[in-house]
TrEMBL record:
InterPro entries: Cupin_2, HNL-like_cupin, RmlC-like_jellyroll, RmlC_Cupin_sf. Transmembrane segments: none annotated. This is Cupin domain protein. Residues 50-113 form the Cupin type-2 domain. It comes from Dethiosulfatibacter aminovorans DSM 17477. Pfam families: Cupin_2 (PF07883).
Length: 145
């Protein structure tokens, strides 16, 4: 469901928008927000609500791990996109679940005409790390329908 009005979106975004994601802003086109649902280093899994303003998306990136690892996205509010390298983009709506194995290059974010939130679950693994790449190309993004 596309939601452009921020007040309407905030009513749907049950886990809350959180704070501006300034620590990772260099890896995003547009503004994103983080609401940590677990504490890094204290809990065995990192779980956070990530909110994207309309048109915001993260750069291409890969979650690396020697064993297990990866990421799971649980879509909760608004409407967004997910794309793996070499595949067509997938439309995301509340209730959708995306399982991203370690080693898969991908990006995700909001549609141009909607706020979007998902719960990001960092899957525990051995020697996990993230590799950030180039932004998703604006021209390709604008063609998504």
């Amino acid at each position: 469901m596309n939601i452009i009005n921020i007040d309407e979106f905030n009513k749907e975004n049950v886990f809350g928008k959180g704070i501006e994601n300034t620590g990772y802003s260099e890896y995003f086109t547009g503004d994103s927000f983080l609401n940590l649902l677990t504490e890094p280093g204290e809990d065995p899994m990192l779980i956070m609500n990530v909110t994207f303003e309309p048109g915001c998306r993260n750069n291409w990136h890969i979650h690396h791990a020697k064993k297990d690892g990866g990421q799971i996205l649980l879509c909760t509010a608004g409407s967004g996109w997910y794309q793996e390298e070499g595949k067509a983009a997938v439309s995301l709506n509340p209730g959708d679940v995306i399982k991203i194995p370690a080693g898969v290059k991908h990006w995700h974010g909001a549609k141009a005409d909607s706020w979007f939130s998902h719960i990001a679950v960092e899957v525990p693994g051995e020697d996990c790390s993230n590799e950030w790449g180039e932004p998703a190309i604006d021209e390709d993004y604008r063609k998504l329908k």
